[in-house]
Design goal:
This protein has eleven helices and 22 strands. It is globular. The protein starts with 13 loop residues before the first helix and ends with a helix. The relative contact order is 0.12.
């Protein structure tokens, strides 16, 4: 909730910060009015109202209303407010900001709802705030708060915890049905879908096409997928952890860490780690046209180092830093940088420093960490059939050969929706994490690229995303910065239209 003190608006632009503080705080002691519990007011009492949405609107001269939430740095609020039948209220910051299992009480005072239920007063000893009530029902509360001397106002949406639980059950049933219909109509062997909101999982399930017995079933055993390039943001995050520890500097040339990285003698030594992260190194997408046929694979512990050493004859498509060009090779080089700087195998570093702290117990770059019947086998074609070869080569692990489950990836999405925090795991400062999703280079097709992530501006916040495609697999992760919602699609069919399915799921999400 937008509250009384200046500290409550610390995420907003200074213009709003100053104008709001000028009216929401008062140095004088307030007089508390006699409390009267109205019939409409009874809807509020003795419930935990949890904030589910915050928006900012402007009123333009022609009386049109414009959503300007996306102009704000963030509205990372997760408040809970409780109204008592005796006219008092208490209010905490919620688990997201408190960063503990027990939310922290931030404020208490008195409340009063007008007889017409069009205005809600929250009163402390030194301040009074008048919220305009846009909607009030037993399960939903929508408040408007104007900003003094400006044509702006906040809209804050709250729901009771019980209604959220009911919504989640209904949402799960709807998504089950939607996925079943989609994979049947499109002849897809299976799809795993995850949906998270802030630090809560709304959905996490794998649905299998059971066409042998003419039914669609949910199967939780064969739950491991190759997520292909959706894994690239993991590598970027690991690089930024090393950056924060002063183990590397992304402005440094790659040869500082890998002296044997000798591509293109003319300008290869100018390639920086940042160039690799933003796909502006000039390196081609793949080192050889048949890389992803998986006919000649290297499964040894030295596979990645041997691969990077073999790139000496590779020619650049452009001078470093001059042009965007998506490159799997660049992320394979980043994996080798991680291994050499950390002085341990790439796969081991990722497990110790990301997967374990995130509770991702079913995630690994090593196929040997899984039983064969745990893995959703790759398919292609229609009618779908198993691929002849399995997409796994330790030379290419950092660019996409990561195997994981929908449960683990939900943890990953919550980590990113909360700006690099998951439970007690917080490996990056706010400023360092922000570098990952800050737009840097215009791709001309897929929005802007940050460090490992792609991003597009929306009317309400931004969309941060990455897709993936490998032999027999396809995947897509999308994070909406406002509201804090993440959606993940994994499929063991190469031709699955993950964008289409994700859009169907996104349209099913309501507040």
């Amino acid at each position: 909730m937008i509250k009384f003190g200046c500290s409550l608006l610390r995420f907003l632009f200074p213009l709003f910060f100053l104008s709001a503080c000028s009216i929401l705080s008062s140095p004088t002691k307030n007089v508390v009015p006699d409390f009267k519990l109205t019939e409409r007011g009874k809807m509020l009492i003795n419930k935990k109202w949890k904030e589910v949405k915050v928006e900012v609107f402007s009123c333009e001269e022609n009386d049109q209303v414009k959503n300007i939430t996306g102009q704000f740095i963030k509205t990372d609020l997760d408040d809970i407010i409780v109204f008592s039948s005796g006219g008092t209220y208490s209010f905490d910051e919620g688990e997201t900001k408190a960063r503990t299992n027990n939310a922290q009480i931030f404020e208490s005072g008195y409340w009063q709802l007008t007889e017409e239920a069009d205005s809600l007063l929250l009163i402390t000893e030194t301040s009074t705030t008048n919220y305009f009530v846009e909607e009030l029902s037993p399960e939903k509360l929508v408040l408007n708060l104007p900003i003094a001397d400006e044509d702006y106002y906040y809209t804050l949406t709250y729901r009771t915890k019980s209604s959220l639980m009911h919504y989640q059950a209904e949402f799960t049933q709807n998504i089950d049905s939607l996925i079943c219909q989609y994979i049947a109509e499109n002849d897809i062997p299976s799809v795993a879908v995850g949906v998270v909101y802030r630090d809560s999982v709304l959905y996490g399930k794998r649905i299998v096409n059971g066409k042998e017995d003419r039914s669609l079933i949910s199967d939780n055993e064969k739950s491991i997928y190759n997520i292909a390039s959706v894994a690239k943001p993991f590598v970027a995050t690991a690089i930024m952890i090393l950056e924060q520890q002063d183990s590397i500097n992304i402005k440094d040339p790659v040869v500082k860490y890998l002296p044997y990285f000798t591509v293109d003698s003319k300008s290869g030594n100018q390639i920086t780690i940042e160039h690799l992260l933003t796909h502006t190194s000039g390196l081609p997408s793949v080192s050889s046209p048949d890389d992803y046929d998986y006919e000649d694979v290297d499964l040894t512990d030295d596979a990645l180092e041997n691969h990077i050493e073999s790139l000496a004859s590779l020619k650049l498509n452009a001078k470093p830093g001059k042009k965007y060009g998506y490159s799997n090779v660049g992320f394979e080089v980043l994996g080798e940088v991680i291994a050499k700087v950390a002085q341990m195998p790439f796969e081991e570093y990722m497990n110790i420093n990301l997967f374990q702290p995130l509770g991702m117990t079913k995630t690994s770059y090593l196929i040997s960490d899984f039983k064969e019947d745990e893995i959703a086998q790759p398919h292609t074609g229609s009618p779908y059939k198993r691929t002849k070869r399995f997409p796994y080569n330790r030379q290419f692990s950092p660019s996409g050969n990561l195997f994981t489950s929908i449960k683990d990836m939900n943890n990953w999405m919550m980590f990113n929706l909360n700006d690099g925090r998951y439970q007690d795991f917080e490996p990056l400062s706010d400023s360092t994490y922000a570098l990952l999703t800050t737009p840097r280079v215009d791709t001309k097709e897929d929005g802007f690229v940050g460090l490992g992530w792609f991003t597009k501006s929306l009317s309400n916040g931004r969309m941060v995303f990455h897709d993936g495609l490998d032999l027999g697999y396809s995947s897509l992760t999308v994070l909406f910065t406002e509201p804090k919602i993440g959606i993940l699609i994994l499929s063991n069919h190469q031709e699955t239209n993950c964008n289409e399915l994700l859009n169907k799921i996104a349209k099913s999400i309501k507040y």
